[in-house]
Amino acid sequence: MYEKKTFDQFQVGDKATFSKTITEADVVNFAGICGDFNPLHMDAEYAKNTIFKQRIAHGALVNSFISSVGAMFVGLGAVYISQFSKFLAPVHIGDTITATMEVTELISEKNRLKNRTYVTNQEGKIVIDGEAVVMIPR
Length: 138
Fold this sequence. Notes:
The chain has helices at about 25-35, 40, 45-50, 60-75; strands spanning about 15-20, 80-85, 95-105, 110-120, 125-135. It is α+β, with helices and mostly antiparallel strands. The longest helix is centred in the middle third of the chain and has 16 residues, at about 60-75.
């Protein structure tokens, strides 16, 4: 699953994806880990009266799947330098999301990859759009 890759193995346009259906257990477990028990995530009755009309998954939970695809894509020893994410749409329990990381620039003097990162739902709608920089070990 995880292999060691060198900087020279990457090209602009290389990309990888990771898909997952968001479950009740994912939301509950994430709340327990991070301590965010906002009723928007946890209470269906509360969420009914919000702009979302139903519970939504934590943005940070959904965003974490970018790290999952990144770890598998760039390989052992790679280190996240930065991640910028813009949250564009809610993700609901039962949605199937796909996180994508695509190389947009090779920064050879620092062995870094600049990547477009985005997450789509089962309808192909982008729910998170962003950018990550990852350092590849020498």
